Amino acid sequence: MTLPLNMKRPDRNRPEPLWHQAEQALRTLIADGTWPDGTQLPNEAKLSEMLGVSRITIRHALRNLEESGLLRREHGRGTFVRSSTVIAGVRGLTSFTQEMAERGLVVGSRVLEMCQMPADTEISDALDIRENEPVIKIRRLRAGNNQPVGIQTAYLPAGRVAGILDISEPMLSLYDILRNRFGIVPRVAREIYRVGTVSAEDAGLLEVEAGSPAFIVRRITSDGNGPFEFTISTMRGDRYEIRSKLHL
């Protein structure tokens, strides 16, 4: 493989570690499409020659990119650029509580924040309401078998869930509360998954290091009256899976 024109070789006179510079050089080639999804990278020896650094430095950079979800290593085949966008396969409309039950795990939930706030542009677009219209924000730490799995932040139109801030019962399943208290029954949901990393804010709660791989999930759920829930979730990459059943 010839040296890409936009590949920036590490500079030993710069203060940043060589492995960091090598990682950024490779990350740029992935981000700008020079190496698109599925591209097989040159082997460590070739990358070492291309970037002018040791194989140990290259190995460090590749490991970081793999942990960030940008690369995948296949034993005996090599290292490939991994797609950063994953769309979940078709499945039933389930809550987190149902998902954990289906996997044989005991669900846990802790409310981290629950308040009313004005909807920003992203929230208003998702819920099909006016910007700055009041919404209820519910941020929860979700667990399975007492192990943290993810952090979910749900936004609900305040007008459809009047009095929800006064509920004192544990919020294991938000959908059960919406169904039983407000007559809101989900009919359809749209989810988008992408590979991301755990923020510094969430790292301690999820018991991982900041920057650890994660699924970032955006979900809009609707009933017969339109969207009633917009949820943004950060799910630990090592404790959450996307499962699909395929048929001929």
From TrEMBL:
What molecular functions are annotated in GO for this chain? DNA binding; DNA-binding transcription factor activity
Gene source species = Roseitalea porphyridii
Q: Which InterPro entries match?
A: Bact_HTH_transcr_reg, Chorismate_lyase_/UTRA_dom_sf, Tscrpt_reg_HTH_GntR, UTRA, WH-like_DNA-bd_sf, WH_DNA-bd_sf
Q: Provide the alphabetized UniProt keywords.
A: DNA-binding, Transcription, Transcription regulation
Record has Transcription as a keyword: yes
Q: Which PROSITE patterns match?
A: HTH_GNTR
User: What is the protein named?
Assistant: GntR family transcriptional regulator
Domain HTH gntR-type span(s) in chain numbering: 16-84
Q: Name one GO biological process term.
A: negative regulation of DNA-templated transcription
